[in-house]
Amino acid sequence: MRPSVRGVLLDDEERLVVFRRTVPGKELYWSIPGGHVEPEDASLEHTLRRELLEELGAVVSAVTPLTTLTYPYQGAVKTQHVYGCRLVSMDPALRHGPEVEDPASGVYDVERLPLDPAEITSRRLVPEALGVYLAAHITSLPRLIHRSM
């Protein structure tokens, strides 16, 4: 199973940028932007920057490795590399790819959450392992993800 990356993205007001996911036939859930490593990606950070541009039209700075999660998924083991980063700019007009072009993918509404554990635990965040990590570390994120000079 291909590894993936997730971007724990903080905006200039120290809020967490997430997707509120509405998918036909599925229960409402939230997710952190990111995606699978592709063969043409030069590095995990390259994958992260590509995915954030595709999904959010976002440019980021202060990319900081936070953790690597592994958990069972569809009969295999899924590995997700989680990075913290700071939002430099976001232009929804730059969004592209199957997440925004295929109606079967559902809706990816962008929300910004205060850095409060209750904001994570009160939502169904997928994958669950990432929700557990964020609930435990959410208030530390500004300290962990340094602002670029």
Topology:
Layout: E1 4-10, E2 16-22, E3 29-31, E4 34-36, H1 44-56, E5 58-73, E6 76-90, H2 98-101, E7 107-113, H3 117-121, E8 125-126, H4 128-137, H5 141-144
Parallel strand pairs: 1-6, 3-8
Antiparallel strand pairs: 1-2, 1-4, 2-3, 2-7, 5-6
Could you list some keywords that capture this structure?
alpha+beta, 8 strands, 40% strand, 149 residues, Nucleoside Triphosphate Pyrophosphohydrolase
Description:
- This protein is of the alpha+beta class and 149 residues long.
- It has one domain: Alpha-Beta Complex (Nucleoside Triphosphate Pyrophosphohydrolase).
- The chain is built from five helices and eight strands.
- Strands 1, 2, 3, 4, 5, 6, 7 and 8 form an eight-stranded mixed beta sheet that branches.
- A hairpin with a 6-residue loop joins strand 2 and strand 3.
Form type:
globular
What share of residues are in beta strands? 35-45%
Structural class label: alpha+beta
User: H/E order of the elements?
Assistant: EEEEHEEHEHEHH
What value does the Rg take, in angstroms? 14 Å
The count of β-strands is: 8
- Biggest pleated-sheet summary: 8 strands, mixed
Low-confidence stretches: none
What is the first-to-last residue Cα distance? 37 Å
How many helices? 5
